[in-house]
Fold:
Amino acid sequence: MVATVVLGGLGLVLVVAAFIVSDVLAGIRRNVLPTGTEEKTAGRVIRVRGPVRGQLENGAPAVYTEVIVEYYTRRGEGPYEISRKFPVGSRITYAKDDRVIVSYDVRSPRRARLAGRVSHWPALPRTATPV
Structure:
């Protein structure tokens, strides 16, 4: 009888521990995978500065090109601006009026990152002009 109570109590402890671990892992997974809080939109390069001598965020001196992008959220909020610094010898080049992909957090759309370049931009369908 005592063995049954001890094994039942141990089983209950293991079940509760399994539920706690699954909740913790689900929370970590929710934070790592930004499917619900991150959106992407198109932006336009408005300014390219460089080469600029300055310091990176970690304080190291560097020569870099700064790309400044303007974008609107998918809900029409904005315009917001973000900037990214690229090393001068980088193969990644941007020019003014280039279309780029901007990834931003829905909760704070001002905190965004440059996610890449748009390889093609669909043109609006042409409508016949009335005569």
About this structure: The helical segments are 2-32.
